[in-house]
Design a protein that fits this description.
The chain is mostly beta strands. It has five helices and 18 strands. Helix 2 packs antiparallel against helix 3. The two termini are 54 Å apart.
Length: 348
């Protein structure tokens, strides 16, 4: 009887670096869901029937590879002799090879391993034969994709065979989920607004030298803000739009900034470098100080008004340039002293 074994990855469903194992145990026919880490991925299939009359093939996204059938050709030059001392081993080995259900294999493997351990070293060919048979239970294959956060991998194993001219099949379904993580990245940094769109004049109260109680509202010379006055601490939220992790990629970003007297918010595009550095630009709406509407240049007033009294805040568009950094851990948090725990582990 031939059994054709087909392993199909029916899809990797993405909703939103180190070794990661996707393990399918054929002795367990239950449909399960497991959590796995986001690491270099490889598949392990356990408890494959060792009987050489059973034929297995694994198909991963159209790349089919055949698993070599169990064979004793590598040690046939020195066969395992039938003696009284090898009788128990021979029985366990035969039962192991003739298994017809994957669920039988864990117990049959244990019995065969016990029988091998009791053999004298002069029966090394028997030991080699048995150990090689046990190795055939498991097949490991590097996968063609890398695991990332927010993935669900559904693995379906279909075992199809014919009994009495009737086609029969058994299906294993295993679901693996990687850790859930928001795709949004948060960076902290600084934003510079060069006053390209919003060039607002600044004013002050100029004293009249001929009259102590008169002040003229006068425009400042070089009224554009200095560089540092246009620099604001910023928080930036970025959503990557290219499907990469750990490399440079583009993102949509929303930012909020303040210099502790005015507030700005906007949106644009960013280049994310290794997730930890963000360089962005875009358009933001920002508060700017402009001359209060109740005054105009040249007005004569009797009080020496402060800057805040002469001006009011108004919103307007402005281009921005920003740089941000991302921290995996809170940079202001306290770090536990691990020297004692390390020393304790060294003494174990």
């Amino acid at each position: 009887m031939k059994i054709h074994f087909l392993l199909c990855f029916f899809g990797i469903l993405i909703y939103a670096k180190s070794m990661g194992q996707i393990i399918v145990d054929l002795s367990d026919k239950k449909n399960t869901t497991e959590s796995i880490d986001i690491k270099k991925s490889f598949l392990i299939v356990k408890n494959i029937l060792p009987n050489p009359t059973y034929h297995y093939s694994f198909n991963i996204e159209m790349n089919e590879e055949k698993i070599p059938s169990f064979s004793t050709s590598s040690f046939q030059s020195e066969s395992c002799l039938d003696t009284i001392e090898t009788k128990i081993y021979k029985k366990a080995y035969k039962e192991f090879l003739n298994a017809t259900e994957e669920s039988q294999l864990p117990d049959l493997q244990r019995k065969l391993a016990e029988a091998i351990s009791k053999l004298d070293n002069k029966y090394y060919s028997c030991k080699m034969e048995g150990n090689e048979a046990i190795k055939t239970l498991t097949y490991t294959k590097d996968l063609y994709f890398s695991l990332r956060n927010n993935q669900t991998i559904v693995v379906k194993v279909i075992k199809s065979f014919t009994i009495n001219k009737k086609d029969t099949s058994v299906t294993w379904t295993k679901t693996f989920k990687t850790p859930e993580k928001s795709p949004w990245l948060t960076h902290f940094g600084f934003t510079y607004q060069p006053n390209i769109f919003s060039r607002n004049d600044q004013f002050y109260s100029k004293a009249d030298t001929s009259n102590a109680n008169k002040f003229a509202i006068t425009k400042k010379n070089g009224n554009q803000n200095r560089f540092w006055e246009n620099l604001s601490p910023t928080i930036m939220f970025s959503y990557p739009v290219t499907n990469k992790e750990g490399d440079s990629h583009l993102a949509f970003s929303a930012i909020a900034a303040t210099n502790f007297s005015t507030f700005s918010a906007g949106a644009g595009v960013s280049a994310i470098i290794g997730e930890n550095v963000a360089l962005g630009t875009g358009i933001m709406f920002t508060q700017k100080y402009v001359l209060n509407g109740i005054y105009k240049e040249g007005d004569i007033i009797k009080t020496n008004l402060t800057y805040e009294q002469l001006h009011e805040k108004k919103w307007g568009p402005e281009i921005y340039f920003t740089i941000g950094l991302r921290f995996d851990k809170n940079p202001f948090g306290t770090q536990k002293n691990t020297s004692n725990s390390n020393a304790a582990s060294d003494n174990k």
